[in-house]
Amino acid sequence: MKPLKIVEQIIIVLIFAVLTPLVTIGIIISNVSQQSVRSELANNTSLMAHYVGDAIESYVNLSQAQLNQMASGFNYIPDTMSKIQYFDDIEAKTKLFKRLDIVKKNQIPKQKYNIENGMMTLISPIDPEKNYYLSAQINLDIFNSLLGKENIKGRNIFVFDYKTKELIVTNANDYHADNILSGFNIDTVDDVGFFGKKNTPKAFYKIDNPTWVVVVDTTQKITAKTINKARYRIITSIGIAALSIIIIVSLYTYYLYINIRQLFKGITAISKGNYDKKIHLIKSLFTPYETIFIAKEFNYMANKIKISYRDLKEKNKELEKLNEFRENLVNATSHEFRTPLTSIIGYTSRLLRHDIQVDEQTRIKSLQIIKQQAQRLSGMVEDLLVIPELESYSLKFNIQEVDLADSISRGLEYLNNEEIEFQADIAPDLNYVYADDYRLEQIIINLVDNAMKYSLNKAPVKIRAYNDSLMPVVEIINKCEKISPEIKEKLFEKFIRVDSNLTRTTRGTGLGLYIVKGLAEAMKIDINLDVDDEFKITLKFNDYVK
User: Same domain for 230 and 207?
Assistant: First the structure.
């Protein structure tokens, strides 16, 4: 299975951990709210039915009580004219009753509360023995005014006679009484209850006097204002919350993804050997601290790796140089040491033989050759021993005033050779210098010995020493073959020789000039090389006795 990217994982987590619970909670809240509003609508409808029913019943009972009171006082009026005047005064003052009249029992309507032409007839006995009754009518418009009150606006209210199923009064402009009555059976229902759909509940309330039932209908308009509006608000709130979550998570994911991509690029660069790669994060409110910390530590690690890699490369170079030095040292020692040792062994064996007679001159010459080869071997050993101390800067110097002219003389005496002539030109007023006497003599010997080795056709080696503006200067000059610029650049390095390793014609380890340069720099002596028709090395002593 292919691993998911972080963006895909965040989307899945967002859907299952945030959006799905949010939608579920929204649905639950919507249903709870809907149930609550339904219950509230039903209770409100029931209360309204009670209110209207009680108001109608109270009004009718009050009217009947007043009519009964009028009927009871009717017998106390002495004459007919006074009775007629009594009726007129009541109609004029109370404006409650219309058409007050005295009727006989056979003229009384069968229904107790007769409804005709928008009027309701009330009957009260005057003289039951003589079958006379007081009849009065009240206008049903009073009920219309009741149904039109502010606190019941928006509701359709119907008042039926539950015996005749006749519509008494309603405030609905467009209605069908049959549709209202089809929802329940008036004859079998209790005094109070509900019927109809859940979101549009209808409440009824039965009145015994008169035999009416009040039906309050919840219209679609009220449902839209309550249930639908609450549902819309919940859905809108959930939508806004979900959108806000998506926007915030998207911004967070965007910055997180970009910064993680930077980490990927940095890791890829490191794996490919690019240790200069740095991670540059886009920092914002949505950038986690852990990401910033990882980037910081990664850059620190990359820098450490870069330094370690650079050090490793340098160590490898040094190792290569050491390996080359080892190989050259083995080659040099195996070849160069063999020659003087062979001479020393050969002449020593000759002198020790008893079967031949060695004259004094031959014996002295043999001893001189043994000494010369021993000195040469000693010089090569000294060269090999001084190199590690030079390279580790552990070589100790005894700096003091040194007679430069005397050092040059001792060096030439040490290298006295019958085959090559020395032409020394040493100024008598040559200044003393501050140096290590032994190491200075070693520099002179190595330079002159190198000049002797490469002297063309055994030409004389010139040694000049003079003061240049009080600064002592030593020049060593000899005739030599042409030297290529590449070799000239490397003459002061280890194991560098003018002739080829395959066709070498001179003796030596190739360490003389390298040692000279190291000793000269340690004693603050400037060394310059000039190669043209002649090979000239110049020494300038910066520390001298003024």
Answer: no
